[in-house]
Amino acid sequence: MSDPTLEFLKQLTSSEASFWRAPEDGVLRVTGSDRVRFLNGMLTQDVAALEANRAVPCLQLDRKGHVLGVLWLIALDDAIWLDVASGRAAAVQEILEKHLIADDVAIELCSDLSVAVFEGADTQTWHGEPVLEPRHVSSAGSTESPQICIADAGLAAGALRLIGPAAWLDRCIASFSDRELSGPEVEALRIQSGQPLWDYELGERTFPAEAGLDRTAVSFEKGCYIGQEIVARIHSRGAVKRALVRLSSEQPLQRGAALERDGQGIGEVTTSSAVGPNQALAYLRVKAGQSVESGSRVEVAGASATATVTVTEA
User: Does the predicted TM-score (pTM) go above 0.90?
Assistant: First the structure.
């Protein structure tokens, strides 16, 4: 019996295709008749409005609106799957389970599932025709051994995110590409896309708006959830004290380097690229009522270098 995902990947194979594995990602399976209502009160996206076979980026927050987990929320007919980044799956599972009272909800950490991302697949068009809508989910396999494919869920536009047993992912990789991105290459792609990473741009004191996550991973149309009041207040007032930006420079930029303007400290480099152009992510301080503008220049302290700021859009 043919595997539809493998057949699809064979169509998309190109000389520019590449892949990377996400070993720090952990997958949670949420089942039970109350799963939608329960998660809708826990996470930042509108779970109740999410149709089956769709996925959205999402956050788990604490009551003060700080980020505790960054994840992909994947809705299937029989379960909701959470692909949690940066080794935070067990922590997110613990948070969710602490809030279970009389809910018909079961949360399982699926340690036998792995995640791989296929860049350069161009899932949006094939010979000029639409292939998959962004965030569309196709699935096969069984509840215990799923094969989940999400369109446009990587670092670059049109990427494919696959979640499933390691052996199945290996077959998909063999069908799709033998070009595995190195760690520094993945980091460079992440910096280019402006996506924050735990322990670098994210921690348990980070607000979504500081890292730009409120533009993609938060619904401002839904009702209450943990941390919602603080997130809504920041959104309405624009009251963040720092903002995540991308920097480009003629000289290498080092993580931890202080940034200055007119001799005053205004921020710090959080991640720098070791391959390709000299790029980095950094937090810049924001004054009340002001915003950071793309094209502005900052000085790198002690390096006799300057960098150009790019504000990453959603």
Answer: yes
Of all helices (H) and strands (E), which one includes residue 187? Answer: helix 183-193
> What DSSP line would sit under 78-116, residue for residue?
S-EEEEE-TT-HHHHHHHHHHT-SS---EEEE-TTEEEE
What is the secondary structure of 232-267 as a DSSP string?
HHHHHHT--SEEEEEEEESS---TT-EEEETTEEEE
Q: Tell me what the pLDDT averaged over the chain comes to.
A: 89
Question: What letters, b where the CB count within 10 A reaches 16 and e where it falls short, cover 248-278?
Answer: bbeeebeeebebeeeeeebbbbbbbbeeeeb
| Sequence-ordered list of residues with C-beta below 8 angstroms from that of 246, at least 6 positions apart, any chain | 191, 192, 194, 279, 280, 281, 282, 309, 310, 311, 312
CATH 3.30.1360.120 residue spans of the chain: 4-181
Fold for the domain defined by 191-310:
Elongation Factor Tu (Ef-tu); domain 3 (2.40.30)
Question: Which residues are CB-neighbours of 294 under 8 A, at least 6 positions away?
Answer: 309, 310, 311
Give residue 201's Cα distance to chain centre. Answer: 12
What fold is seen in the domain 4-181? Answer: Gyrase A; domain 2 (3.30.1360)
At residue 158, the pLDDT reads 76
Q: What is the CA radius of gyration of the chain?
A: 20
Tell me if 198 sits within 8 A of 271, measured CB to CB. Answer: no
Q: State both tokens at 87.
A: 């080794």
Q: So what's the pLDDT on residue 294? A: 86
Pairing between strand 279-285 and 264-272? antiparallel
